[in-house]
Fold this sequence. Notes:
Number of domains: 1
Strand content: 5-15%
Shape: globular
CATH architecture: Orthogonal Bundle
Number of helices: 6
Number of strands: 7
Strand order of the largest sheet: 6-5-7
Radius of gyration: 16 Å
Order of helices and strands: EEHHHHEEEEHHE
Amino acid sequence: MFATPFKNGKTYGDCFANKGIGVRQNYPTFDEKEGKVITLELALNRCREANGEAPYSYLKDEMASLTAYMAFTSRGQKMDIRIPSDPRALEAYENGKRYFYTRRGQLNFSCATCHVQSPGEHIRAEILAPALGIMNAMPIYRSEWSGMGTTSRRFLTCNSQTRAVPLEPQSDEYRDLEYYLSYVANGLPISGPGARP
Length: 197
């Protein structure tokens, strides 16, 4: 799927450094020209659109397959997210951190409620994962989904489970959250695609 040419003869490899092999540890990245965080999922859909193809859903199916392959080619590489000398990049990091620690939804949970205060604890049959390194295993297979899901899908699911209103996939808030979580995992190896109960 990754190597299959688009209608114009180009491939995903034409859109990424090193032909897209072994680059997962560098995403998300901050685009200084655009002034925003670019996730791997967003970069893949932008690649498709630049080559005359329709974008994929950000949640599962083809997008999960593509990101799973790219993560697999990067296994063992250390997460290497950079914050350039651009105040907008630091602001994106801080916005992601703020989102992570802000309580929301009917249950008044923050991301940290589960992934900092309670990792290893059980919620029904599920074991809560620690925040540190959680992005390194993305995308993931979850039993409740009976399939693979992207980072976007996981963020939406977390918001729904805490009875908060999920945001749009690839919203600025979710991209900044992914930037924050990935940056704090710098130095930890890529282990995706992963699996969760």
